[in-house]
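F.,

This is the one I mentioned.
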């Protein structure tokens, strides 16, 4: 179950899980952290009670957790769940985490210490813009989808490119055939203006629900990777006196829309996603269920 942030994946996933009497595995890398409920739009207690969820609030922001660890944990959980059921719902907008589960990540080289030092020096002396420019030149495809405000992601990709002399996007795009399940990909689509309107409203709702207090309680962890993310980084600038609150909130909206745009770019390349319209009616849902059942019963 894929799609950009704010499109309504949580609700559709729960409705499908209830229909098929199954469970939900999250691949939203921001919702792993229990202290970040509001800013990551984690499912509410009521939603969690409607269908069993896995990998929601299972970690602390202080825990180190890599995409490789997630791949291993998610596959282990899927194997458990598939013992008793034919269908499991995987949901989330973290493209690389979804890819890790469905296809597997390639064996990329370990970080090269010399490269890391060189890149860290560039970051310290010339800022994140220099790293962004470097990655954009080396691998425009990956730059189009990466969270380019996260300097660690930039460092990692550039390091791998330097080591292998190959684009990072090519190295993570090779499919692995080690999966003994079939994948049916579904999504929700909307006009961009409609999606952006939803994102803006959702940020306002987060603020009403206490995002400011949540971010303040996490300010002491702002150096951690988990907090280097939309919704928190902007408020840390407000706490530091660099921005006023209205501007910080407008930046959260802008950066959320940018993230959604990168997600749309990523998903647009896929030709195997069956889409429902935003605000779908009951007959759309029934049609989706029929589509899923047909896919399961087909020999393809």
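My design for it:
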């Amino acid at each position: 179950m894929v799609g950009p942030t704010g499109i309504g994946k949580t609700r559709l996933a729960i409705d499908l899980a209830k229909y098929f009497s199954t469970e939900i595995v999250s691949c939203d890398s921001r919702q792993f952290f229990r202290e970040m409920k509001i800013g990551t739009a984690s499912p509410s207690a009521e939603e969690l009670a409607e269908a069993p969820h896995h990998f929601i609030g299972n970690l602390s922001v202080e825990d180190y957790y890599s995409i490789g660890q997630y791949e291993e944990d998610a596959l282990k959980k899927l194997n458990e769940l598939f013992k008793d059921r034919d269908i499991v719902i995987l949901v989330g907008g973290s493209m690389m985490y979804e890819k890790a589960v469905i296809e597997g990540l390639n064996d990329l080289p370990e970080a090269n210490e010399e490269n890391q030092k060189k890149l860290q020096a560039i970051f310290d002396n010339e800022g994140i813009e220099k790293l962004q420019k470097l990655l954009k030149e080396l691998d425009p495809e990956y730059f189009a989808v990466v969270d380019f405000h996260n300097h660690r992601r930039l460092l990692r990709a550039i390091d791998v490119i330097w080591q292998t002399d190959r684009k990072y996007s090519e190295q993570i795009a090779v499919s692995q055939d080690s999966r003994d399940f079939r994948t049916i990909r579904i999504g929700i689509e909307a006009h961009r203006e409609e999606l952006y309107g939803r994102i803006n409203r959702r940020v306002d709702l987060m603020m009403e629900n206490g995002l400011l207090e949540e971010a303040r309680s996490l300010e002491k962890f702002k150096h951690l990777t988990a907090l280097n993310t939309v919704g928190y980084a902007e408020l840390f600038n407000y706490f530091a006196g660099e921005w006023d609150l209205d501007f910080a909130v407008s930046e959260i909206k802008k950066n959320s829309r940018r993230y959604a745009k990168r997600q749309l770019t990523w998903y647009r390349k896929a030709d195997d996603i069956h889409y429902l319209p935003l605000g779908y009616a009951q007959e759309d849902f029934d049609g989706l269920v029929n589509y899923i059942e047909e896919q399961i019963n087909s020999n393809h």
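The first strand starts at residue 24 and ends at 26.

Talk soon.
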